[in-house]
Amino acid sequence: MTHKEKILEFVGSTGLNKTKFCKKCGLSNGYLDSKGSVTSDKLALILENFKNLSVKWLLFDEGEMLLSNNNEEGVSVGSSLLERDLAHAKELLRAKDETIASLQRALEIIGDRNGSSKA
Fold first, then answer.
1. Which residues of 59-97 are buried (b: 16+ CB within 10 A; e: fewer)?
2. The pTM is what?
3. What are the tens digits of pLDDT across the range 49-80?
């Protein structure tokens, strides 16, 4: 399941419609319907606005979609782990975005070379 599909599943669980969800997160109205992957800055906005959304579930498909905060000790430990996980996830997403940009540049160069060799 893609990040966008997971976000849509989460939106369904919140009782909000996509428009209200996007507005709450500061995303454009059609963002969830647009093509392409979710960028790290958009994931950060979503995670900042919905503290009960599990970073591990969203990014790594581990655990449950929603965080439980049934005991106070677990919440404080979970909070520091969540902050660490969020920082790690942001770094992974930043690296992913850089890799994608590099690959796109390489494809453009290859395309330019192929186009000039045909002329």
1. beeeeeeebeeeeeeeeeebeeebeebbeebbeebeeee
2. 0.57
3. 999 999 999 999 889 999 876 544 444 555 67
